[in-house]
Specification:
This protein has 13 helices and twelve strands. The protein has 330 residues and is of the alpha/beta class. β7, α8 and β8 form a beta-alpha-beta unit. The relative contact order is 0.15. The structure holds 2-keto-D-gluconic acid (8YV).
């Protein structure tokens, strides 16, 4: 039987590519920039499967141009780069990488919260610039984190892992808002209480965004929501760009409408809104919340496992859809 042809869209761990090559015919690409218009389609034509990251958009036009494609395995838990209904209709399996990154990503959310609230990045810039001449009682005094109220918007696996850190490690009171309420046992394990979004924004000392992106949650946090928050509050976004209106956030930070922000994701990334680059009270990181060596390797292995299992006819481990049958390609 001819081996399946797989396209790996970004550089990944060589050992994972080598393992895939034992099962499939691997075509690999390592692009140091976003795709140009139509470029990804060209690479996917003639391929049976693909290993993608959040940076590869899989939509109806691409699927129509790639009739051999059977599976796209995302190396990410989020899959808003997939048009899932179009993939399902076209008979294309989608998979993601849940669970393996939950705790690592929650660690990073907490790191951003601490860094922003406690002004660590500002402090480092101040020190490196040689401004540190004396001890001052108010030097870079920030907001308290332990014992305060954390509001989490989006209470999936990562939101719950953050809640556990907050409640058990930092003695925080956790309130959350989500599409649906958690089971009472899960709420108890997270020591988290369900509240409406407005109450969360008005009363939380710090707000963490961990919800999946869809057009329905575009600009969930804009000028109006920022205006509800405490002036001493920190906003952290480790979910997806587009959930926050970055221009409105930069304005709110500059005006002191909220105290600080920590952002790992951006609208239109890798581009970052220029106003965010010039406000001091925001910590900016390049979408690295899942980036430990162990976790990124586990994500790549799981994406590869999904491809291997699929082509061996065992069905993928972590599917995101149940595709309709697709007629065999010529
Ligand atoms: C990925 C992420 O690194 O898993 C996700 O949804 O956002 C990150 O862990 C990124 O999407 C690249 O695939």
């Amino acid at each position: 039987m001819t081996p399946a042809r797989i396209f790996i869209a970004r550089a990944i761990f060589p050992e994972v590519a080598q393992r895939l090559a034992q099962h499939c015919e691997v075509h690999q690409h390592s692009l140091g920039r976003p795709w140009a218009e139509g470029e990804l389609v060209q690479h996917l034509q003639g391929m049976d499967g693909a290993l993608t990251t959040g940076a590869e958009r899989i939509d109806a036009a691409l699927l129509a141009a790639c009739p051999r494609l059977r599976i796209v395995a995302n190396m990410a838990v989020g899959y808003n780069n997939f048009d899932v209904p179009a993939m399902t209709a076209a008979g294309v399996q989608g998979t993601n990488t849940p669970d393996v990154l939950t705790e690592t990503t929650a660690d990073f959310g907490f790191a951003l919260l601490l860094a922003a609230a406690r002004r660590m990045a500002e402090g480092e810039r101040y020190l490196r610039a040689g401004h540190w001449k004396e001890w001052r009682y108010d030097l870079l005094a920030g907001a308290e984190v332990h014992g305060t109220r954390l509001g989490i918007i989006g209470m999936g696996r990562i939101g719950q892992a953050i809640a556990r850190r907050a409640a058990h490690g930092f003695g925080m009171e956790v309130v959350y808002h989500n599409r649906s309420r958690l089971e009472p046992a899960l709420e108890a394990a997270c020591r988290a209480r369900y509240v409406g979004k407005e109450e969360l924004l008005r009363t939380a000392d710090h707000v963490m965004l961990v919800l999946p992106y869809s057009s329905a949650v575009h600009h969930t946090i804009g000028a109006a929501e920022l205006a509800l928050m405490k002036t001493t509050a920190t906003l952290v976004n480790i979910a997806r760009g587009g959930i926050v209106d970055d221009a409105a956030l930069a304005q709110a930070l500059r005006a002191g409408r909220i105290a600080a922000a920590g952002l790992d994701v951006f609208e239109g990334e890798p581009a970052v809104h220029p106003d965010l680059l010039t406000v001091p009270n925001v910590v900016l990181t390049p979408h690295i919340a899942s980036a430990t060596v162990r976790t990124r390797l586990a994500m790549a292995q799981l994406a590869a496992d999904n491809l291997i299992a699929f082509f061996e006819g065992r069905g993928p481990l972590t599917p995101v859809n149940t595709p309709l049958p697709r007629p065999p390609a010529e």
